[in-house]
From TrEMBL:
It comes from the Eukaryota. The keyword Kinase does not apply. Residues 1-17 form the signal peptide. This is Uncharacterized protein. CDD domains: CuRO_1_LCC_like (cd04206), CuRO_2_LCC_like (cd04205). It comes from Rhizopus stolonifer. Residues 31-144, 161-315 form the Plastocyanin-like domain. The lineage of its organism: Eukaryota, Fungi, Fungi incertae sedis, Mucoromycota, Mucoromycotina. Belongs to the multicopper oxidase family. Keywords: Copper, Metal-binding, Oxidoreductase, Signal.
Amino acid sequence: MVYPLLAFVFYLAWAQARPTNFTLHIKSALINPDCFNQSYAVLIVNDQFPAPALHMVKNDIVHLTVRNDVDNNVTTSIHLHGIRQLESNWADGVAGITQLAILPGQEFTQAFQVVDQSGTFYYHAHVGTQDDTVQGPLIVYESEEALKQHVSDGPYPYDGEHILKWSEWWHQSMYDREDYYMSPAFTADGGPDSILLNGQGVYPGNLSENCRGFAYFDVEPNKVYRLRHIGALTFRLLDITIAGHDMELIEVDNEYTEPYPIKSLEITAGQRMSTLIRTGNYSAGSLFPILSQYKYRFDPLNPGYTQSGYGYLRYVDPKDKKDICIMDRPEPLMPYNATDVIPGWVLPQVKPFVSGDAKILNATADYTIQLNMQQ
């Protein structure tokens, strides 16, 4: 009788959950997000770069339809990074593993429930190097109220939140870069030409027309903000600092942690972390740089600092906010020292907000699977 009971409980969970529907159209485009003097062929989502954020609530039943509208013979798929896919592994979006890649002119609907998960996630393409640009935030809130207000979600109260999505950008088409990686000439990745923050950057040199400048995030004085950092990266490990503002780490990969004070945030491919910042009593118009630098990069000509991985906190009067274009390149906050690296950063000291059963760490494996690989 146990199995029918479990099935009935699972059915009730689905019956009581909130349905949520999204459609993503994958298309070809020429873009120039770092204001370089040339655009490159890539894929984008819903005619925009960066891709739109998807917002949902814990235990929502989600139907995500991915439509391949690419105008050449390119297949695609969308992976939902961090979603457990309990009882729905076929909806994980990994082409060649959990599904066939979506052919041009076709679509695929991924149906799943966000079972007992909340926090910061993201979605990205899972074919070739498409994830350079086919990537977007996926935020799961604890409740519908938190979804509507984007405040006070989870155990920590705050007044507002911002998403900071860090990604890499190459001055090369998606197709040329993939050909290079698959060729005998590939020995190592030389690094991206730019680091983008929410799809924006300013590459040094001659700037293109219609440059959007660096990304900025509006804050008000004497308030608490949650910054949801997403490492939508392929290779790099970044160190993030904010001038004049310390941070508290409160989330690692969609799991809340006990607050941990940090001066800088380390984030790499696929990681998602949230920090709290407390704004000061600064006047409207005050700007504070958000800076990134590479870790573990030993190039003597360009040791650590990224070409354009910057943004700004902008203090505003909520009654008088105007769009601006920030082109000024900030000075690094900390001198780069390739040997000044803490193994594991602070993560070994960070504790989960809700402790799990420690016995699982000492459990004996039920099965041992050995894979022998050869070239």
